[in-house]
Design brief:
Layout (H helix, E strand, L loop, with lengths): L1 H22 L1 H27 L6 E11 L2 E9 L1 H24 L6 H19 L4 H19 L6 H32 L4 H8 L15 E3 L2 E3 L1 H19 L8 H4 L5 H9 L2 H11 L1 H4 L3 H22 L5 H21 L3 H28 L17 H15 L11 H15 L5 H27 L7 H5 L6 H25 L4 H5 L11 H4 L5 H24 L3 H8 L1 H8 L4 H32 L1 H18 L4 H24 L1
Antiparallel strand pairs: 1-2, 3-4
Helix pairs in contact: 1-2, 1-4, 2-3, 2-4, 3-4, 3-10, 3-15, 3-20, 4-5, 5-6, 6-8, 8-11, 8-13, 10-15, 11-14, 11-15, 13-14, 13-18, 14-15, 14-17, 14-18, 15-16, 15-17, 15-20, 16-18, 16-20, 17-18, 17-20, 17-23, 18-23, 26-27
């Protein structure tokens, strides 16, 4: 069964990628989508058979991979609760995206290639989440990076799509460099990159509290590190990889630009695959991260900053997809805060619920874009509520799940209400130095999330139409092949929190996870959140209500207010609209110097030195010599006779002088 779950998407990729032109677009769509549906159904079977039973962690061997000295790597699937949760998320969302794409990409002439890339993306993510060792995880890690490059730049004739694809690829190389160094460090510290060996040795790796620092076990950047310091450095290097893949500040800049790809790609990247890879990796390596308080504090701090930063930028964005993209960036920050304070169950729970409502929002946005002739600027929308009512209500469901609508002080509410509130409460109870800071920023981010989410709804669906009469005349509801996936995702957005809260963070936590997520014995944070003060439990709800009220005032009751605020606070508005000027800063610090260096090496290094002294220089000297020799060939007979006479005289002179000696 597990071989089928992982390899069916690969088979779909090979069929559509190699035979797409032969079998046609329709066959490519149906084959890849059908195989994905089978994989999704099997994933749910695996979820119930592993997560909701007494099955212990086991491995499914595939083949021998690497054997070199002490490095012994098998290609095998590690099956535990964390794995099957990720299998459900990845394959469910991917199968629905495949089906949705049949309608959304109907007019694209390159559909076989698109569906092949989708299946390849899914296979790479499955390789990552089923990894039994860090080498296999890195293989899947780089695979999703490659697939994201192909999908973001799918419309390769569009310059902005090519630029976005390259940006995503390059920014992720920065994070992946840290991840690779972290893998090397793990091998140095534990002598293995297999998870079972690493986890078995991790608990006894750190000296007992109060013991001497001990001898150096790792040299890094000229520093000799003891065991604790070495483990902290390794964790931070691993987290550097997570920052790139999961778009955490300052390696977040690629994520909004990824919107240049087709909308189904955005849904797949943001809900189920690439951006969740970093969260999964930190959760998988929780036995290591739990031993470094410093590393967890950094994770908490970066997550809180990212959640706040992305929420502030989302307040003023006008592209419907970019608003949702910054929402993803912000929600990933929430997940990392949960991991940083040791509430791993809450972090993965939010990853699980977020997949449903974020995929719903992206695919709903795609339905809007499809209806308004590919327009994405919300300032050119409005008044769509009665024209596309099904899409409207699906977007409403996604919004109430994202903003966390529910009944305060109870477990009755949408998926986001339960999982996001659990993270905010975890930050309140967190014991590291950044926990209180994170609680404040996450609470503010919850208010901003509510504001920009309802701003999107009001600008898109309410008010007077701002599109042209021709566009409004052609507005139409999406076909069933695009709406049915929305219905399924809407059910998850509404009920996933209520149905699975007990397993992920509730009274069945221990029986559900069974060691797949590791916490130290003195970490009782998931028990403490059930005893939070009423004001702490109500904080996210209060923030949500305030955000909704402000959005209603600004965009329904008094639509001229946002424009006046922007005019009165031009500096702040420009600061947020330009995303805190991160792109401009990176352009100044890295892009322009790199271009200048490249230009210098091209003109001086390659042109002047290599070509000048090499091929071009040699050829120039040859031409120069031949040009001089050509001058001797005048074509006049008396010149040649004179040269012959000089030669005869020189020969006779040489012979006479030679005989005299």
């Amino acid at each position: 069964m597990y071989h089928a779950i992982v390899f069916l998407p690969l088979i779909g990729f090979l069929i559509a990628g190699l035979l797409g032109r032969s079998i046609g677009a329709k066959a490519s769509e149906y084959i890849t989508s059908g195989l994905m549906v089978i994989a999704a159904v099997l994933s749910w079977v695996a979820f119930f058979s592993v997560g909701l039973s007494d099955t212990e962690t086991f491995t499914v061997p595939v083949l021998r991979f690497i054997s070199s000295g002490s490095l012994d790597v098998d290609w095998a699937f590690r099956i535990d609760t964390l794995t099957v949760v990720m299998l459900v998320v990845v394959n469910t969302v991917s199968s629905l995206v495949h089906i949705y794409s049949i309608g959304y990409m109907h007019h694209d002439p390159h559909r076989p290639r698109f569906f092949a890339y989708l299946s390849l993306f899914t296979f790479a993510m499955l390789m990552l989440v089923t990894a039994d060792n860090l080498v296999q995880m890195f293989f899947g890690w780089e695979g999703v990076g490659l697939a994201s490059y192909l999908l973001i730049g799918f419309w390769y004739k569009k310059p902005s799509a090519n630029a976005a694809a390259m940006k995503a690829f390059i920014v992720n190389r920065v994070g992946d460099f840290g991840f690779a160094l972290g893998i090397f460090g793990v091998f140095v510290l534990f002598g293995s990159i297999n998870f079972d060996t690493i986890f078995a040795n991790a608990a006894s790796f750190i000296p007992a509290e109060g013991a001497e620092a001990g001898e150096s076990v790792l040299a890094f950047l000229g520093y000799s590190l003891d065991k604790y310091s070495a483990l902290t450095v390794v964790c931070l290097l691993l987290f550097m990889g997570a920052m790139g893949k999961s778009a955490q500040v300052p390696l977040h800049t690629w994520l909004p630009d990824a919107m240049e790809g087709p909308t189904p790609v955005s849904a797949l990247i943001h809900a189920a695959t690439m951006v969740t890879a970093g969260v999964f990796m930190v959760a998988r390596l929780s036995p290591i991260f739990e031993l470094s308080t410093t590393a967890l504090t950094v994770v908490t701090f970066i997550g809180a900053i990212t959640a706040f930063f992305a929420a502030t930028v989302g307040l003023v964005q006008n592209d419907i997809k970019r608003v949702i993209a910054y929402s993803t960036c912000s929600q990933l920050g929430y997940m990392f805060v949960a991991l940083g304070v040791g509430a791993y169950g809450a972090g993965i729970f939010h990853l699980f619920t977020h997949a449903f409502f974020k995929a719903l929002l992206f695919l709903g946005a795609g339905s809007v874009i499809h209806a308004v002739s590919d327009e994405q600027d919300m300032r050119r929308m409005g008044g769509l509520r009665r024209l596309i009512p099904t899409t409207y209500w699906m977007m409403i469901i996604g919004t109430i799940a994202l903003t966390g609508v529910g009944i305060p002080l109870t477990m009755i509410g949408t998926a986001g209400f339960i999982s996001k509130d659990a993270i905010i409460e975890s930050a309140f109870w967190g014991h590291n130095a950044a926990a209180g800071f994170a609680f404040v920023l996450l609470s503010i981010a919850a208010l901003f999330t509510s504001f920009y989410s309802w701003r999107l709804i009001f600008m898109t669906f309410h008010g007077k139409p701002r599109a042209s009469a021709d566009v409004m005349h052609h507005v139409h509801e999406s076909p069933p092949v695009m709406l049915v996936p929305l219905f399924i995702l809407a059910a998850g957005a509404l009920f996933a929190g209520v149905l699975f809260e007990g397993y992920f963070i509730g009274h069945e936590y221990a029986e559900f996870w069974r060691g797949a997520l590791f916490t130290l014995p003195d970490n009782h944070i998931l028990e403490e959140i059930h005893h939070s003060p009423a004001i702490v439990k109500a904080t996210p709800f209060i923030a949500m209500v305030i955000g909704f009220a402000l959005a209603w005032i600004f965009y329904i009751r008094s639509p001229e207010t946002p424009r006046q605020l922007a005019m009165n606070h031009r500096g702040l508005y420009a600061f947020l609209l330009n995303k805190w000027y991160f792109d401009e800063l990176y352009d100044f610090l890295f892009v322009r110097p790199a271009k200048r260096l490249g230009y210098f090496l091209w003109k001086r290094g390659d042109g002047t030195v290599i070509d000048g002294l090499g091929p071009d220089g040699i050829s120039a000297r040859v031409v120069d010599v031949t040009n001089r020799l050509v001058r001797l060939q005048t074509g006049y007979l008396y010149h040649y006779a004179f040269a012959m006479l000089i030669g005869v005289a020189a020969l006779v002179t040489w012979m006479m002088l030679g005989s005299s000696f």
